[in-house]
Amino acid sequence: PIKTAEEIEKMRVAGRLAAEVLEMLAPHVKPGVTTRELDDIAHKYMTEVQGTTPATLNYHGFPKSMCTSINHVVCHGIPCDEDVLQDGDIVNIDVTVIKDGYHGDTSKMFLIGEVSLEDKRLCRVTQESLYHAIKKVKPGATVGDIGTAIQKFIKSSNTRYSIVKEYCGHGIGASFHEDPQVVHYKNNDRTILKPGMCFTIEPMINAGKYGTVLDEDDGWTVYTIDGKKSAQWEHTLLVTETGVEILTLREEETIPRHINH
Ligand SMILES: CCc1ccsc1-c1ccc(O)c(O)c1
Ligand SMILES: [Mn+2]
Ligand SMILES: [Mn+2]
Ligand SMILES: [Mn+2]
After folding, report:
1. CA of 126 to the centre of ligand 4 (A)
2. 3-state DSSP: the chain helix, strand, coil percent, rounded to 5?
3. Can you point out the beta strands (E) in the chain?
4. Which atom number of ligand 1 is nearest to the Cα of residue 107?
5. Which residues have C-beta within 8 Å of that of residue 145, sequence separation ≥ 6?
6. Number of the ligand closest to the Cα of 108
7. What average pLDDT is seen over the chain?
8. What's the pLDDT tens digit per position in 125-134?
9. Which one in 25, 88, 218, 227 has a CA-CA gap of 20 to 30 Å to 8?
């Protein structure tokens, strides 16, 4: 639904806080650390420093305060003692915080030590696909323009990458997931974007072929079928009168916070 000015202000705060969790974690994300330790650090920071609530904890029974998806894990990796980060790993850390009743949802790829050129390229192309989609967001555009832009960009990257279809972006606000659903591939969703709408774009790109498999044991972890790596980046966005505002932007990013058309 369309947010009021007061709600938009709360979304700005939640988005900034979510981005700050990723920024706070960065110095800790290095070879030898476990994803469980990172989760503990994040949980402590959210609850004791930010006064935010981790939205993923106990969400449909998810047991931790963030998702950590390493290499060929597509999404929903569970922080654990067994996952020790090592040289060459690419890791998505996905955080959603709740502040004053409103959600901020964002994720980035962390490259551990020396990462291969092909894995660096997967991460970079995935981030660029998110940025291309963000640049399409403005009043009067459609939800379909987003996935169509991602697919066009991935096709033009002359790679054999595939776009994960089973998981998508989503409206966000007082709820973690709201309308609309935002798929990351070419589609004809004619839902019109309007000022005050908030949603995420969170493309998952596989180095290999399309398709995912769910870990039956933990009921959460999603893997690529062919064991090749997968990358994901996510931002929470606000449709403005003239374009888009990126509510979860980090200092390190080159894309501007406001894009006006
Ligand atoms: C782990 C939280 C969760 C549980 C079921 S879907 C989901 C999830 C994880 C990351 C997200 O960005 C998202 O929108 C949903
Ligand atoms: Mn997320
Ligand atoms: Mn999300
Ligand atoms: Mn991955």
Report:
1. 11
2. 30, 30, 45
3. 53-54, 67-70, 73-75, 90-99, 102-111, 162-163, 169-171, 178-182, 198-201, 204-206, 212-214, 222-224, 230-232, 235-239, 243-246, 258-260
4. 12
5. 136
6. 2
7. 98
8. 999 999 999 9
9. 25
Distance (Å, rounded) from C-alpha 185 to C-alpha 188? 10
Residues in the chain: 261
- Percent of the chain residues past pLDDT 90, beyond the cut: 98
Quote the tokens at residue 140.
């009067």
Residues with CB under 5 A from ligand 4 (ion): 69, 73, 230
Could you tell which of 62, 181, 236 is best to mutate to test the pocket of ligand 1, judged by most ligand atoms within 8 Å of the CB? 62
Asked if the peptide bond before residue 54 counts as cis, ω within 30 degrees of 0, the response is no
Rounded to an integer, the average pLDDT of 135-156 is: 98
What amino acid is encoded at 217 in this protein?
Answer: D
Rounded CA separation 143/23 (Å) = 29
Q: Which two tokens stand for residue 6?
A: 């007061």
Residue with the two structure tokens 């476990």: 34
Structure tokens at 241: 């009168």
The rounded Å distance from CA 261 to ligand 1 centre is 31
Q: Looking at ligand 1, which atom is closest to the CA of residue 56?
A: 2
Termini Cα distance of the chain:
23
